[in-house]
Amino acid sequence: MKSKSKQVTYQEYLKISELLSLQRPLSNETDTPAHEEMLFIITHQVYELWFKQILHELDSVLELFGEETVNETHMGIIVSRFERIAEIQKLLIEQIRIIETMSPSDFLEFRDLLAPASGFQSVQFRLLEIKMGLEKENRILFEKRAYSSALNEDQRANLEIAENSLSLFDGVNRWLERMPFLDFEGFSFWGSYREAVNEDLKNQKILLDSKKLSQEEKLRMKKNYENTRNNFEAIMDETKHNELVETGQKNLSYKALQAALLIFLYRDQPVLFLPYRLLTGLIEMDENLTSWRYRHALMAHRMIGMKTGTGGSSGYSYLRATAERHKVFRDFTNLTTFFLPRSKLPVLPKEVQKKLGFYYSHTMDSK
Questions:
Q1: How many CB atoms neighbour CB 58 within 10 A?
Q2: How far apart are CA 293 and CA 288, in angstroms?
Q3: What is the per-residue pLDDT across 96-108, written as a single tens digit (0 to 9) for each?
Q4: Distance of alpha carbon 184 from alpha carbon 259, whole angstroms
């Protein structure tokens, strides 16, 4: 790195003068300036700065997943960047507490000046959703209009580019499909897992029939058993699984689902530990984003009740609906449905364990 000829200062490096000149309350141009508007502006500008950092992290990860094969030495980098994103998300959730120090009456002093501006128009947040893997057809319509309807032509073009590019979900799905340990050294994970599931279901049925239960208890336990059996049958049948993917009820491919289960069930194997942290990182980011959406909805309810949002949305009702509907990595969260106790998992052959472990051998000539 070449040395600089001029010493940079803190003010110059961070562009402090420019940064602090960007808070311009609209109410200052009226007869009744609203003290709380400054807080509102700074809070949302800070959100946008953190969105920029999250996108910076996501883009670097997408570049790694965009390669023909993912270099396994990059797993640690990906996991650490997921952890950073998760920490930023926690900060974004906590930031809501700051804006809630403003009372609803204080907000009403300048709210009408904001229309038709709305957080719905945040291009960076839409980019974040798209790059994570939220698909257009899974979005809740904004007052029966496309989510991009409130944006200008250039903004819509940028979002369209992102929609046609690799998403994090697609990159992870593709990476999982290349998992080498599903059929390895004569060991078939899926075949062994199927046998373990059938044995577990058989034991559950025997236990159910042998217990002295009231009719009500028996019906309840039988229903639980049938639900468990149906859930397992749904993932064992590739055709059924693909039908669920076609109808949008699932997103992971059949092979990717198998690989994800292998990682979760045998996470203690050294080679699978970083992939396990990667998958749990996806779940945590999805949960944090859902928590942020829900807290945002509660804040909107607190501030404006059931009024229409400044951008024309249904406000609280719309925000609350997106919290559940706009999850991206729910398939990974739902995998716990198919977990077995460790004591009932198929035992990995020694050769497979050796490949999944860290072995070091050293021989010396004895003298």
A1: 20
A2: 9
A3: 999 999 999 999 9
A4: 12
CA distances from 25 to 35, 45, 113, 120, 163 (A): 9, 13, 10, 20, 34
Nearest to 108 by CA among 41, 36, 47: 36
Handedness of CA 330, 290, 57, 150 (dihedral sign): positive
Phi, psi dihedrals of residue 251, rounded to the nearest 5°? -120, -35
At 365, which amino acid appears? Answer: D
Task: Give the pair of three-digit tokens for residue 118.
Answer: 């709305």
Kindly report, residue by residue over 218-277, the tens digit of the pLDDT: 788 888 889 888 888 888 999 999 999 999 889 999 999 999 999 999 999 999 999 999
Helical segments of the chain, H only: 10-13, 16-20, 37-65, 75-99, 104-108, 111-114, 123-132, 153-163, 168-177, 189-210, 215-236, 238-246, 254-265, 270-304, 316-325, 330-333, 350-356
Distance of CA 269 to the CA centre of its chain: 25
Any bridge partners for residue 145, and if so which? Answer: 142
CA distance 321 to 76: 35
- Rounded Cα distance between 79 and 6, Å, is 37
Look at the block and give the residue holding tokens 């839409």.
126
Would you give the DSSP letter of residue 143? T
**Nearest alpha carbon to residue 20 among 11, 29, 28:** 11
Tell me the C-alpha distance between 260 and 335, whole Å.
8
CB of 100 closer than 8 Å to CB of 206: no
CB 278 within 8 A of CB 75: yes
C-alpha angle 88-93-95 in degrees, rounded to nearest 5: 90
pTM: 0.89
Q: Which amino acid is at 340?
A: L
Distance CA 40, CA 99 (A): 7
